[in-house]
Amino acid sequence: MVKLRELIRAKGQRRLVIFLLVVIGVFLGTPVLAAEDPDELYRLGRFAEAEKIYADSDMDNPKDLRYRYNRGCANYQGADYKGATASFSSVLRRAKDSRTKVKAAYNLGNTAFKQGDFASAATHYKKAISIDPTREPR
Predict the structure, then answer these.
(1) In angstroms, rounded to a whole number, what is the distance separating the alpha carbons of residues 21 and 54?
(2) What is the rounded distance in angstroms from the CA atom of residue 12 to the CA atom of residue 15?
(3) Closest Cα to residue 73, out of 131, 137, 122?
(4) Domain count, the chain
(5) Are residues 81 and 110 in the same domain?
(6) Burial level of 26, CB count in 10 A (0-12/13-18/19+)?
(7) Domain that holds residue 104
(8) Cβ–Cβ < 8 Å for 137, 128
(9) Region 57-65: what's the mean pLDDT?
(10) For residues 24 and 136, what is the distance between their CA atoms, to the nearest angstrom?
């Protein structure tokens, strides 16, 4: 009878340990996965963390302007307008395709607008239109 109680207690403890490990894995595993994906961090509103990973990716892949553009977007969403201006300006200067140039110019306009610099905002919006009058900046 004593051995049966000990066995039941041991099984219950094992189940509890397994349950706790699963719960801990679910709650601790999710942030680790998000931390590896800057797009997911951005979607979660964790703009500073996303910006850091985009910045690292930008340094590792300087010819791939997607990282610099995304870095500017994360800066903008995190209200780091100086950083956003630097990123979007660089993308505008370096981009080869009109779609990327339009998006960068338009977002420079948005960044200037957020800072209350309406003259610069208008200049950037006009630049976006002059690059390709038929393209929307999306």
Answers:
(1) 32
(2) 5
(3) 137
(4) 2
(5) yes
(6) exposed
(7) 47-138
(8) yes
(9) 94
(10) 46
Give the C-alpha separation, 129 to 135, whole Å.
8
Q: Residue 110 has which token pair?
A: 């948005």
| Residue given tokens 């300087």 in the structure block | 62
Say which amino acid occupies 117.
Answer: D
Distance CA(126)–CA(84), nearest Å, equals: 19
For residue 8, how many C-alpha atoms fall within 13 Å in the half-sphere facing its CB? 5
Read off the pLDDT of residues 84-127 as tens digits, 9 standing for 90 and up: 999 999 999 999 999 999 999 999 999 999 999 999 999 999 99
Assigned token pair, 121: 């905002």
With residue 67 as reference, give the H or E element that holds it.
helix 65-77
Residue 23 lies in a domain: yes
The structure tokens listed for 93 are 């200067």
| Amino acid (one-letter) located at 21 | L
Q: What is the pTM of this model?
A: 0.72
